[in-house]
Amino acid sequence: MDFPSIESFVGNTPLARLQRLSIGHHNRLLVKLEGNNPAGSVKDRPAMNMIRQAEARGEIRPGDTLIEATSGNTGIALAMAAAIRGYRMLLVMPANMSVE
């Protein structure tokens, strides 16, 4: 049995219609449910694309260690994308940031 890669789910999130905001306005308002990305964030898509573009430019290769200063969802998304693509990831954050 063949199973899809986690990478195939990044950005492949569902659309939902906001029906109450569309009533009487002759429009259809859709939202993309980015929280359904594998790391649960809108940051999954740009993180994966940053790594893919760096690969395409020959700037990184599997086995390299990537370093990013972060204090939030971008770091989580980059860690996931790096793991999927075969990179080690080192995330650093300022000492004055909260523990969570």
**What is the overall pLDDT average?**
89
Report the strand count. Answer: 4
CATH architecture: 3-Layer(aba) Sandwich
Tally of helical runs: 3
Rg is: 17 Å
Strand content: 15-25%
Kindly identify the CATH topology: Rossmann fold
Question: What proportion of the residues is helical, as a percent range?
Answer: 25-40%
Order of SSEs? EHEHEHE
Q: Assign an overall shape.
A: extended
Sheet/helix structural class: alpha+beta
Walkthrough of the structure:
The protein is of the alpha+beta class. The chain has a single domain, classed as Rossmann fold (3-Layer(aba) Sandwich). Helices cover 30% and strands 16% of the residues. It contains 3 helices and 4 strands. It has helices at 19-22, 44-56, 73-85; strands at residues 15-17, 30-32, 65-69, 88-92. The protein has a two-stranded antiparallel sheet with strand order 1-2. Strands 3-4 form a two-stranded parallel ribbon. Helix 3 (73-85) links the parallel strand 3 and strand 4 (88-92). The radius of gyration is 17 Å and the shape is extended. The mean pLDDT is 89.
Short synopsis of the structure:
The chain has 100 residues and is an alpha+beta fold.
Q: What labels describe this entry?
A:
4 strands, two-stranded parallel sheet, 3 helices, 100 residues, 30% helix, Rossmann fold, extended, single chain, alpha+beta, two-stranded antiparallel ribbon
Helix-strand layout with pairing:
Elements: E1 15-17, H1 19-22, E2 30-32, H2 44-56, E3 65-69, H3 73-85, E4 88-92
